[in-house]
Amino acid sequence: MPIHEKSLIRPENLITHEELVIDEVNVSGHWSTFIQPRVVTDYDERLQEEIAALPGGENIHRCWQCGSCTNSCTVNAINPDFNPRYWIYLIRLGMKEELVRDKEIIWQCVSCNKCTYACPRDVNPEGVMKATARWLELKGYTEKKPSAIFDEEFSAQVFAKGRIEEGRLLQRFFARTRQKLLQDWLVELARRLFSRLPLMLMMKLGWASLFHPRTRGWRKARAAIADYVAECEAMERQVLGLNGKGPSS
Amino acid sequence: MSSAPILVVGGGPAGLTAAHALASVGQPVVLVDKADRLGGAPILSGYAKLVPSGEWARDAIGGMVRRVEQNPLVNVHRNTTVAAFEGEPGRFRARLSNGQEIEPAAAILCTGFTHFDSVNKPEWGFGTYPDVVTTTQVEQMLSSGRGVHCPSDGREPERVAILLCVGSRDRQIGREWCSKICCTVSANIAMEIREALPRCQVYIYYMDIRTFGLYEDKYYWASQEEYRVKYIKARIAEVTSDGKRLIVKGEDTLVKRPITIPFDLVVHAIGMDPNVDNVLLAATFGVKLEPHGHIARAPTYSAMGGTSRPGVFVAGAATGPETIDDSIAQAQAAAMAALAFAQGGLARAAE
């Protein structure tokens, strides 16, 4: 069945000749407009394997395109271009170019998991969205998102000290994402905290923010976690055929 | 021929077939049914015209019931279950819930299925809105002669949606099987509705269409080509109401767009669950269930109609979703196997 959907016509596929005469008929301008066909010329058979190898993507092969994920989706209700069912189809068939076109939408999943509970085959579409966003990042199609930067800061502090210190975490996060430190909500939070905060807790927090203490016996646990993270990352990079650190391009 | 009867449990299409087949070669039968009348699901649930014969269920199955009820070799117990079944092949003893004790040479379980209860998919509105009904209810509207109508106010619907795979092919509710018949039954119902109410449009929401074998052109194609039934590849998110009509929401996957469509009547194409009594039946007869809860079959190639227990046989939808025609064929096969088993037992006793 043909898909009669005007939104599928892409501006770059519209061809118009300013001056054109065919068989003595002048078809200049919009009379000569035609649409280049969108032909899929090959399947990238690695794509599904790659997504399936990333955390959350494991069950993507189960999908049979019923659309339950999309029609239960929080983000789709606001932006119809956010369509997990469609992306899962692209990934399963290996239509990489089509997938990458949506790179700035895919990561907007809010992880509400409504799709997880609607999916009749337990594909875990929320996990697939996570894996796909990770894939786009590892392959260098997207830059690091603020949430990834926050996660990095968070884990860097945990690695260093075995704990996080909220003030420092926020400060570093805002600095790295070039946001002002004194966010309106933060000022409001501080104002309300001051009006009712227990003194003892404030002193502990203050002490922690000055001296950045480390959790006792942290060294061993840190080494084990670091090993595990390195192992996971190496596995991901091996599956995606990446060498060294950072995105491929 | 052995004077020991063969016990047939369940009086639906399979049980009626097994009882008739055995009696027709002179084998006495005890037929037990928990309902107050024979006929099984097609009679008890009031099915309309059957697939693929097009005969009314009350005529087709009713004829099978009469044939068995009039046969002197078949001893029918209605409102009865089997309370206990013990012993070894050749020395089985069964106690019925009416107190009667028999010594059957073999038993055939024709215990069928239970219709899926749509309240287990609350997002699709059954139990919330009176105009959300099941295929079984539409069958009853047709077979009772009342015609297809909206239960809320009795009006004739102008637009009907049939949702496929309700209670089938769904990991969320542990139904990991295809119920086999719902696509064909839905296409059949859609054509019946279009025939009775030519101004009423019928839409079928599907994930796949499984009108297998000869049902393809007779039901799927005919519903599209002759009756103009429309098929939409979408699994519905929810059925709600705007206070006047039902609202069906989902994604039309072929045009990649959300849909919010008003309907007068929404029909759930409900699937076939294992019989709710299967755990009890398995314990009573000492047979195994397969992982979904249907009665497990012995290997088809070497022991057609068998169960995990020698001397206890099985046929029809007791083993999983099944058509009426195939239930009848299986029952005939199980009757043959049970008869051979009973005569083998007789031969062993004579030695």
- The radius of gyration of chain A is 25 Å
What's the Cα radius of gyration of chain B?
22 Å
The second-level CATH architecture of the domain at 47-138 in chain A is Orthogonal Bundle
CATH top-level class of the domain at 47-138 in chain A? Mainly Alpha
CATH homologous superfamily assignment of the largest domain in chain B: FAD/NAD(P)-binding domain
What letter string, H or E per element, gives the SSE order of chain A?
EEEEHHHHHHHHHHHHH
Task: State the distance separating the first and last CA atoms of chain A.
Answer: 39 Å
CATH topology of the largest domain in chain B: FAD/NAD(P)-binding domain
Question: Within the largest sheet of chain B, what's the order of strands?
Answer: 3-2-1-7-18
Q: Helical element count of chain B?
A: 9
What does this 3D model show about the protein?
The complex is a heterodimer of chains A (249) and B (351). Chain A is mainly α. Among the domains of chain A are: 30 residues, no CATH class; 92 residues, Fumarate Reductase Iron-sulfur Protein, Chain B, domain 2 (Orthogonal Bundle), CATH 1.10.1060.10; 39 residues. Chain A is built from 13 helices and four strands. In chain A, the strands form two sheets. Chain A has a two-stranded antiparallel sheet. In chain A, strands 2-3 form a two-stranded antiparallel sheet. In chain A, helix 1 packs across helix 8 and helix 9 crosses helix 10. The mean pLDDT of chain A is 89. Chain B is an alpha/beta fold and 351 residues long. The radius of gyration of chain B is 22 Å and the shape is elongated. The mean pLDDT of chain B is 95. Classes of the chains: A mainly alpha (249), B alpha/beta (351).
